[in-house]
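> agent: user asked for a holo structure of the chain below bound to pyridoxal-5'-phosphate. Plan: (1) validate sequence alphabet, (2) canonicalize SMILES, (3) run complex prediction with ligand conditioning, (4) return tokens. Step 1... ok. Step 2... ok. Step 3 dispatched.
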Amino acid sequence: MNRPYNFSAGPAAIPEAVLQQAAAEMLDWQGSGMGVMEMSHRGKEFISIYQRAEADLRTLLAVPANFKILFMQGGGLGENAVVPLNLSRAGTVDVVVTGSWSQKSAKEARRYASTVNIAASNEADGHRSIPEASGWQLSRGASYVHLCSNETIHGVEFQTLPDLQALGSDAPLVIDFSSHVASRPVDWSKVGLAFGGAQKNLGPAGLTLVVVREDLIGHALPICPSAFDYQLVADNDSMYNTPPTWGIYVAGLVFQWLLRQTEGDLTGIAAMEARNIAKARRLYDFIDGSQLYMNPVAPEARSRMNIPFLLRDESRNDAFLAGAKARGLLQLKGHKSVGGMRASLYNAMPMAGVEALVAYLRDFEKEQA
Ligand SMILES: *Cc1c(COP(=O)(O)O)cnc(C)c1O
């Protein structure tokens, strides 16, 4: 039996092979007599799970040796506080606002930084574009520059990361890559810290990934909770306190699944990127060519992962969602702040799911004509 296609923005679909393996190992992980949720995080079984997950993620994302991978908790919104607690040095933070998530980051940083400067914003156009980097108003001596590299709600994605040095800033770049991590490569030469909740593209909610350059560790404010001090977390291999063991295990299975993926000559993240480009193009092309549906985002800023779209006749929204559900196309309702629909095409969504969605979009449009 085929499972329905799940277009949720998060928590979101997980590759079926991963769910199968986690189910098969639920009561007895590899002859240990214990399920992963029941193991001590300090036992040799869990340590082996942790070490493999960390190594596989480092390979997948090509994380350089001078970056630490931290498996934390608190989610993306937790990091909106944890990052300034660790990196702001109570100084100035620059934020580039491109949608709801970066706006939230700016607001939270104000609690810890002395000044939060909005270096650029696309608010005037309703968060439908990426502000040209050459026009950003970066502060001299900022502690860091924050941006959200994929805005999950507005469907706006940075196709390339800015080179801050070329823009005259010595500050490290912090990216919130919650909703497109592992969908494309990361240019670590431009990044000081990347964070993301796992529940969009890596695995279960409860695990928060932080990848941070070593020289940025060790500057936490005195008020920073110990469990969120990157120095303590790094020094203890993410086990200063109990890490989200189940989340690390399932994400580790997702990393193994990603490493196995191929697309022509491509493997791993490169294979996923090729698929993600093709999936997004298929859906955007259909939406752009239709009379009923529309996507308001500037073409060069459109997200490959989260594709919001509107029905030009909003009175049909409920019928659209009911019909989608009946065809096994789940969780297409848009975020309440923007309305309409949203299709999230994370790594676990195959092209066949996008084809099924496009077929439904076409049929629904014809039916109503
Ligand atoms: C979902 C999301 C968040 C919030 O994550 P939580 O785990 O709910 O705190 C933050 N940033 C982005 C870009 C997201 O997509």
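> agent: step 4 complete. Summary for user: The radius of gyration is 21 Å. The pocket of pyridoxal-5'-phosphate is lined by residues 10, 75-78, 101, 148, 152, 176, 178-179, 197, 200 (CB under 6 Å).
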